[in-house]
Amino acid sequence: MVRGLAALAVVAGLAAPAAAQDDPLRSVMWEALRDSYFPGATVVFDGRVTVTAPANAENTHAVPVAVDARGLEGVQEVVLIADLNPFPMVLRYHPTEAAPFVATRIKVQQATPVRAAARTADGVWHMGGTLVDAAGGGCSAPALAYAEKDWADHVGEVQARAWPPGPDGSARLRLRVRHPQDTGLAPGIPAYFIETLRLRDGQGREVGRLETFEPVSENPVFTLELRPGAARTLKLDGRDNQGGEIGATIPLPWVQGRAE
Predict the structure, then answer these.
(1) Which of 20, 105, 237, 250 is 20 to 30 A from residue 44's alpha carbon, by CA?
(2) Which CATH number is 216's domain given?
(3) How many other CB atoms sit within 10 Å of the CB of residue 169?
(4) Is residue 122 part of a domain?
(5) pLDDT, one tens digit for every residue, the chain (260 residues)
(6) b/e map 106-135, b = 16+ CB within 10 Å
(7) pTM for this one?
């Protein structure tokens, strides 16, 4: 983005327009992150994109974070970023036929702004965020799974819980995938993490797609808001950065159970 370019509009939830370079979170990394992840794009700080996370992280290996951009129309992509992590990008979510909502747990290396941006059909990125205080070290510790002798036998296993659609037609889905999610920063342990997860309906149409990166926590849990329509099942497929495949069939609606 050209550095002199100001944010272009007054957006809901803000009393006045904010210049793209005037980060409300006052992050020392903002300009570098903007140039890396949103080059040439218009970015506006928008109260309709909310990031919910604890002000003080009790467990830096698994900090719960939820991103909600349902106040916007036509969201095509959502990104989640932890500014001061060694790997700032946490995930990219493409809510193809789903609501622009995603919750998960992330690792943080130190106190950091955690921000999300939602790209609408006009190419504008709408951004919100919050500050998370943390003692640190969440990205550089090895996975706890390695203490279990049979951990490798369970990599890629999927558990799921689904709720029937509510009055607005959306159904909440929660997924848990067994995986060490190593960042590669622990001595002698290479990076080993899930790269993609895709949900499809019974006709093979994409419902939503996640691209995930090193900061997503071990045995990641994802909560999504779907619009399943008449679909009675969902198919989950994915892979990790070492070529491991992930797959499950998820019946809908569920009260509670386990994907096969």
Answers:
(1) 105
(2) 2.60.40.10
(3) 11
(4) no
(5) 332 222 323 333 333 334 445 899 999 999 999 999 999 999 999 999 999 999 999 999 999 999 999 999 999 999 999 999 999 999 999 999 999 999 999 999 999 999 999 999 999 999 999 999 998 788 988 888 787 888 899 999 999 998 888 888 788 999 999 999 999 999 999 999 999 999 998 889 999 999 999 999 999 999 999 886 667 889 999 999 999 999 999 988 654 444 44
(6) bbbbbebbbbbbbbbeeebbbbbbbbbebe
(7) 0.88
